[in-house]
Amino acid sequence: MKTNIIVFGQLTDIIGNDKLVVNNAGDTNSLLEELKKGYPALEDSKFILAVDKKLVTENTLLNTNSTIALMPPFSGG
Amino acid sequence: MNDNKLYERYQRQMILKEFGVEGQRKLLRAKVLVIGAGGLGCSALQYLAGAGVGTIGIVDDDMVSLSNLHRQILYSVKDIGFNKAERATEVLQQLNPEIKIIAYPERLTTQNAFAIMEAYDIIIDGTDNFSSRYMINDACVLLNKTFVFGAVSQWEGQVAVFSPHPLKGGKDGVNYRDLFPQPPKDGEVLNCAEAGVIGVLPGIIGTMMANETIKLITGIGSSLINRMVTYNALTNQVYELGLSARKKTRSLIPKDKSAFLQTDYEWLCAAQPQLKEIDVNIFNSMIAKGEVDVIDVREENELPAVKEFLHLKIPLTQLAENISLIKSDTVVAFCQSGKRSLQAAGILSGIFRETKKVYSLKGGILKWKQNQAKLPV
């Protein structure tokens, strides 16, 4: 199973791209674990996780074709 | 103002079938507060004043500088060095002399926030830092105000509306802390000065904020309540996100006005949590008052033993695993000389953030015992 991830703001500096594909992530917790292994700087970053355009506040099962968004807070005005 | 002039000024929006005379009346009666007259504030303000929002408040203690002018479109070179709230008021009053504009050339703080915000229906956040954003969010929740949120970074912007009023279906409105419960520390997320921002971006996002405000006031269209839109000026991509409340959010917001007044928002966002050391006298008065958890962070069996006041024993090495033992909102750590307790206070501040006030006893238990010995019996 492939999960598509879109990345916003300065998280793109960590990932090196605004898109990413992760294989075999069954739920959001294991996805995050996998991402933090690949990109340790995510550990110290604040961001929200959305599954199919909905904010996720607890571990959520992923379906085939789920699209995940990682979005940091912005401070500028 | 006579009706002819009113009609002439606003007729292009009044002839919209959703808007009409009624929409214009609602705008003229509305009171909107814009906090921060920077990039977002300038563009939002221009359209709100143009549209005829009857009362507009502008809060900003900052002065116009040359590096603002590429995006803060209300100002000119001659305004450099002058207060933004006052300059914006003057410019906008020329655009629309029929509305009331009030300048607050001061920084929004916990001390003045309630007094300023109370008089307005809708609060617009055009600030450029997290301590202000979290303070405004919390104040809006406590005051039951609708909060139009916007923020920008480099080429991307976010817009959302947070409304405490129960929506259809009886669910409580979402607030900013449902997205990001705790503020990032200074430097964790770069601001415009550090990361840069393209001038048109706050123009676009600020205009979207004005649009949301106008829709909320007139009750037309579908607003961004419980939704956040992200716009990317480089790619033109728009991403919309449905928001939902988190269970613990309410516990992070001060429970009432007096708790709000005591919240130090600058401190919450300070890069290095300022570890607060207290001397023996303050320590004694805290113990006397009660409502404090005192923790001995020395290893077991270290001397001198302490029997004079109630305390928990959690050695520094086991602190992180045992935080559930700490119940009070105020915590004081002590050790032999004050060094390990300072370290412990750092760990505890990191864990509890704004939920508890954490202190370290300066000079440790040795200093305390020495001081007690000196006291007249």
What can you tell me about this protein's structure?
The complex is a heterodimer of chains A (77) and B (377). With 77 residues, chain A is of the alpha+beta class. Chain A has 2 helices and 5 strands, in the order βαβαβββ. A 5-stranded mixed β-sheet of chain A has the order 2-1-5-3-4. In chain A, β3 and β4 (54-55) form a beta hairpin. Chain A is globular. The mean pLDDT of chain A is 92. Chain B has 2 domains: 3-263, NAD(P)-binding Rossmann-like Domain (Rossmann fold), CATH 3.40.50.720; 273-374, Rhodanese-like domain (Oxidized Rhodanese, domain 1, 3-Layer(aba) Sandwich). In chain B, 39% of the residues lie in helices and 17% in strands. Chain B has 15 helices and 13 strands. Chain B has helices at 3-14, 20-29, 39-51, 84-95, 110-117, 130-143, 176-179, 192-195, 200-218, 249-252, 257-262, 265-269, 280-289, 339-352, 364-374; strands at 31-35, 55-59, 100-104, 122-125, 146-153, 156-162, 227-232, 238-242, 276-278, 293-296, 312-313, 330-334, 357-361. An 8-stranded mixed β-sheet of chain B has the order 3-2-1-4-5-6-7-8, with helices on both faces. A 5-stranded parallel β-sheet of chain B has the order 9-13-12-10-11. In chain B, α3 (39-51) packs parallel to α4 (84-95) and α5 (110-117) packs across α6 (130-143). The mean pLDDT of chain B is 91. Classes of the chains: A alpha+beta (77), B alpha/beta (377). Chain A binds chain B through residues 6, 8-10, 44-46, 48, 50, 53-55, 57, 69, 71-77, and chain B through 36, 38-41, 125-130, 133, 150-154, 156-158, 178-180, 182, 184, 188-192, 195, 197, 202, 230, 239-244, 246-247.
